[in-house]
Amino acid sequence: MSGIQRTGGALTCDGVPLSDIAAREGTPLYVYSASTIISRYRAIDEAFASHPHSLHYALKANSTLAVARLLRSLGAGADANSGGEIDVALRAGFIPDQIVFTGVGKTAGELAQAIDLGVRTINAESEGELERIDALARARQTRARVALRLNPDIDAKSHPHISTGLKTNKFGIGLDHVRGICQRMAGRAGLEIVGLHMHIGSQITDLDPLARAASAIVRLARELGDDGIAIDHVDLGGGLGISYDGSPVPSAADYAAALLPVVRGSGLHLVLEPGRNIVAPAGVLLSRVVDIKEQPGGKLFVILDAGMTELIRPMLYGAFHRIEPVEAASGPETVCDVVGPLCESSDTLGKDRPMPRPGVGDLMAVLDAGAYGAVMASNYNRRPMPAEVLVQDGTARVIRRRQTIDDLLALEA
Ligand code: LLP
Prior knowledge:
The protein is of the alpha/beta class. The protein has twelve helices and 21 strands. The chain has two domains: 159 residues, Lyase, Ornithine Decarboxylase, Chain A, domain 1 (Beta Barrel), CATH 2.40.37.10; 246 residues, TIM Barrel (Alpha-Beta Barrel), CATH 3.20.20.10. It starts with a strand and ends with a helix.
């Protein structure tokens, strides 16, 4: 039995009952299925098998060490977005040549760290950043491998907060500027321009904008070749969405079918930076009902012990996550708002959800929470961060212990 599934009425993770794991480790709790991570990584890898490619897993989606190590063991590289994520990648066993470093505001310290390590590519965001990389590399008598992050001005048709490819977004370099910048930077002793990069958004379910952006980047690579600047790879970023509500979305094969015709024949190595698509469906957030409240003439609130501190996606993006009782419930359906315990009205995980009326103490699962869940957790209201469990080969193992108030206060005077 693999993945998060309902078996005999109860939700299980790779065959292990989620209620057993919650009973042992407490709630709120993240639980991940290793078999799901493995099969989803392989699905993308196999879909692109006919073209030279590397998958650099986007650590920002979920960078718990055991998850990063699992992906490394499958052959993934890493996409790091900060000095911290570079450190995590190294501790997870990635070698510098397996790490690409992206980020819209890299500090001098982070750039120096990446150059000293000799990461595979620094995806540069502006001409100013290229100048800074050149100066840092020359001071070290080395050359940094860079790719230019393009902003193709293409709407990814995702949520505005997670769209990055429009010229009104802070990311990347406008297409019209790239050739000029490359000409100015090509002779720099500290730079080796090896690639072009883009990432137009996340949770993309319409592949057409991605394919159009890919065409623009491949065209530009060819033009740079004509200018005498030999590009060896294009990095098309991440972004492939998943189905949060059960409606059909493109598969890994559809993704490859949209992108491969664009890069095939270009002679360019293809780099991808998938995050969400691999880990989101592999994770659930488990939480217990702490109170049920019926406001007079108003709503039925199901109050959980998890909220925006554990999973902020619904509050930040209006994101939909299915919320289900772990033990199948019967009885007439009622409509309720599933909310967290924080002192914020926006602390709502699910609005107007039909479900059999839960009881206090019931265990609930928030599905598809493996990406941008635990990594975006906070300590607001002095809430310790939840524990995380990875289920692999029938064994549920704590991969991050629950934070304690002592952990939190250890940093304070
Ligand atoms: N590469 C770059 C440069 C990125 O900025 C991102 C995500 C990725 C790769 C991975 O994208 P993915 O395959 O996961 O879509 N917190 C938001 C998502 C923010 C994504 C930011 N960049 C959410 O919870 O929906």
